[in-house]
């Protein structure tokens, strides 16, 4: 009979063989007994696990920093983690870091399911923290509560009231009195967990006391843990005298990642004029420079930054946090792009080498206070959170670096539809929603056709406002909703944004034909008709054009944003020497909805028709790339200018302060 100890030895040997197979037959030391006990505990709490056979590595991901490639990796990892973890959601820090990643993934991909899962989690726990007087770890879930609140149009005070009460009580603790040697953030991890909550609370309430607290406590932690020689943080004061096996100081990759990512989480909401901002920026620069020096040839970093030989496996959670922080720094102009893009690119490619075919993200060290050994298959929630944060900033960098504006492959009936997201989420955004007369194809002028949404951006100062054209060719006011495009667009909208809607060209089609099934019922009434949709393969209730337009308006208002309705641009159809107007149909119905809902209305149909009339048939001909509907670049430019003149004619122009020099030169439209 084989004894228990012999079985353990054989099991360990078999596990090592599996690890060797997964990692190209390289030998890696197994965790110690104490480390294995921690791994087992983490598994019992559903934080993650380290299976002996995690299956094959993914072969369908590309390291190219293109929006589509980044999006594919984001969804693969996020979907696997969401399905695996949602039944066990909790408020402890290991989960809250994942929640921050899901929030970023929702913003980046435009997929509302990640944000919806976070809302469900928050409601389950009544928007409360883990303890009434929490430490930094237990405060961390408040970042998600506050982000949900800040992006919610209704801004229900109940969403932040419990967290606010807890933070207010923390401010009064004796450990915060001047001269008290005890500090609340005594370990470096805390600089990710708590400060992001405090700065977001200040943003949500307008009360600067939360930033005052944040600045004071971070300074105390810096004074205690900052190593001026290595430009890194000790994990806590007890580690300042400890050494690695090679005699060097212990600097833990995930610990340094917590700090760098924590700096970013602060800078995202810290006022530009805050006198402490320069301190955080300089910290990010110093740490990024040192961390970049320690990057390994595979693009990643080891658990022990100064003793990689003792921890031979790359460590993905710390690496992901480094990538997140550095990429944000490049995106915001805090870090030099020429210096850090190669570091970031190499690291992203390295991380993708640890994604498995099912979406598992491996090589993540289990919980603990210091560098440790783990298996290649090790996957934990917080590491995935860091990966999703990194991916969201990488997508933003891809957009800014390429200048293409294309960031996302929008799922739906047409898999190749690509839609942009805000380049700078901290700025207000003007969203455009409509059909091919707003955005034709990929917006690249193919076939000598372009929608007015592409040149529209040049009328605005993009350092002040994002202009995001999410219109899709062939869609009606109905199908933009039923195919899910509006849901994903709505998820991106935040308070202070502006949304321009223009539909009508495709609403006159059949309600239930097998080619499009995109028509709506004429008018603005409450009429409806039940059909079996042959495209979506389901029962559907079809409403009037006005009903769908009103839905857009109401849901935009609910997000705290400003809806503006445009009548459809006219087709090149002449009658008696004048362009045929749409005042008796979709143009007029659009006006009726705007008046009923008390929102801005731009009569784009009439504004542009007058210009066409003045040019005459011969003058208008070069403005169209097809017989009657789609404009050339010149025609798109004319229509974009018409929209701007219509904006300026509104009683209250919500974007008046955001015009570029070109936009300022346009005169307001005046009705005759």
Automatic annotation (TrEMBL):
Entry's Gene Ontology molecular function annotations: hydrolase activity, acting on ester bonds
Residue ranges of domain SGNH hydrolase-type esterase in the record: 433-636
Pfam families reported in the protein's UniProt record: Glyco_hydro_88 (PF07470), Lipase_GDSL_2 (PF13472)
GO biological process terms held by the UniProt record: carbohydrate metabolic process
Protein keywords: Hydrolase, Signal
Signal peptide (from-to): 1-24
Annotated segments matching region Disordered: 39-60
Compositional bias of kind Basic and acidic residues: 39-48
Protein name: Rhamnogalacturonyl hydrolase YesR/lysophospholipase L1-like esterase
Organism of this sequence: Granulicella mallensis
Lineage of the organism: Bacteria, Pseudomonadati, Acidobacteriota, Terriglobia, Terriglobales
């Amino acid at each position: 009979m084989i004894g228990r100890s012999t079985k353990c030895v054989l099991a360990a040997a078999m596990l090592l063989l599996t690890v060797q197979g997964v990692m190209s037959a390289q030998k890696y030391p197994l965790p110690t007994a104490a480390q294995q006990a921690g791994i087992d505990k983490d598994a019992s709490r559903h934080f993650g696990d380290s299976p002996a056979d995690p299956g094959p590595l993914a072969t369908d991901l590309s390291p190219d920093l293109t929006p589509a490639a980044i999006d594919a990796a984001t969804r693969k990892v996020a979907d696997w983690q969401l399905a695996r973890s949602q039944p066990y959601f909790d408020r402890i820090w290991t989960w809250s870091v994942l929640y921050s990643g899901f929030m970023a993934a929702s913003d980046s991909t435009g997929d509302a399911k990640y944000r919806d899962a976070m809302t469900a989690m928050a409601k389950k726990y009544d928007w409360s923290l883990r303890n009434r007087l929490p430490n930094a770890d237990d405060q961390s879930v408040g970042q998600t509560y506050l982000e949900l609140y800040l992006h919610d149009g209704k801004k229900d005070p109940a969403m932040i009231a419990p967290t606010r009460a807890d933070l207010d009580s923390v401010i009064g603790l004796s450990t915060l009195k001047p001269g008290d040697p005890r500090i609340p953030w005594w370990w470096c991890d805390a600089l990710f967990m708590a400060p992001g909550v405090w700065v977001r609370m200040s943003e949500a309430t307008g009360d600067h006391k939360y930033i005052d607290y944040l600045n004071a406590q971070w300074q105390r932690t810096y004074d205690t843990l900052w190593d001026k020689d290595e430009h890194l943080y000790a994990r806590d004061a007890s580690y300042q005298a400890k050494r690695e096996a090679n005699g060097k100081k212990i600097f833990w990759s995930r610990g340094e990642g917590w700090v760098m990512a924590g700096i970013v989480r602060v800078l995202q909401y810290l006022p530009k004029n805050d006198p402490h901002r320069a301190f955080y920026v300089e910290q990010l620069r110093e740490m990024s420079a040192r961390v970049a020096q320690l990057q390994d040839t595979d693009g990643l970093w080891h658990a022990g930054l100064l003793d990689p030989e003792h921890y031979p496996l790359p460590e993905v959670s710390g690496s992901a946090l480094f990538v997140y922080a550095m990429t944000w720094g490049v995106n915001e102009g805090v870090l030099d792009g020429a210096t850090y893009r190669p570091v970031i690119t190499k690291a992203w490619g390295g991380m993708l080498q640890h994604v498995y075919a099912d979406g598992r993200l491996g090589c993540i060290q289990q919980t603990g206070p210091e560098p440790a050994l783990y298996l290649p298959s090790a996957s934990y929630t917080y590491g995935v959170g860091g990966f999703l944060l990194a991916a969201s900033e990488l997508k933003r960098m891809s957009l800014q670096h390429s200048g293409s504006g294309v960031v996302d492959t929008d799922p739906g009936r047409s898999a190749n539809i690509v839609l942009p997201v805000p380049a700078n989420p901290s700025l207000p955004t003007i969203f455009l929603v409509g059909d091919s007369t707003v955005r034709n194809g990929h917006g690249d002028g193919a076939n000598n056709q372009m929608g007015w949404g592409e040149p529209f951006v040049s009328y605005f100062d993009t350092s002040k406002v994002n202009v995001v054209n999410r219109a899709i060719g062939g869609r009606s006011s109905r199908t933009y909703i039923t195919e899910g495009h509006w849901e994903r667009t709505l998820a991106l909208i935040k308070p202070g944004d502006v949304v321009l809607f223009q539909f009508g060209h495709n609403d006159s089609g059949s309600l239930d034909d097998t080619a499009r099934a995109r028509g709506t019922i004429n008018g603005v009434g409450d009429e409806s008709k039940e059909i079996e949709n042959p495209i979506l393969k389901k029962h559907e209730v079809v409403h009037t054009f006005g009903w769908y337009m009103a839905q857009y308006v109401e849901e935009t208002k609910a997000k705290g944003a400003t809806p503006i309705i445009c009548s459809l641009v006219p087709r090149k159809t002449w009658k008696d020497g004048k362009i045929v107007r749409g005042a008796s149909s979709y143009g007029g119905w659009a006006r009726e909805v705007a008046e009923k809902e008390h929102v801005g209305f731009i009569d784009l149909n009439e504004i542009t028709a007058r210009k066409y009339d003045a040019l005459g048939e011969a003058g208008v001909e070069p403005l169209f790339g097809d017989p009657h509907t789609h404009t050339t670049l010149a025609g798109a430019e004319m229509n974009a200018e018409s929209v701007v003149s219509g904006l300026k004619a509104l009683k209250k122009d919500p974007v008046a302060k955001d015009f570029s020099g070109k936009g300022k030169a346009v005169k307001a439209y005046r009705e005759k």
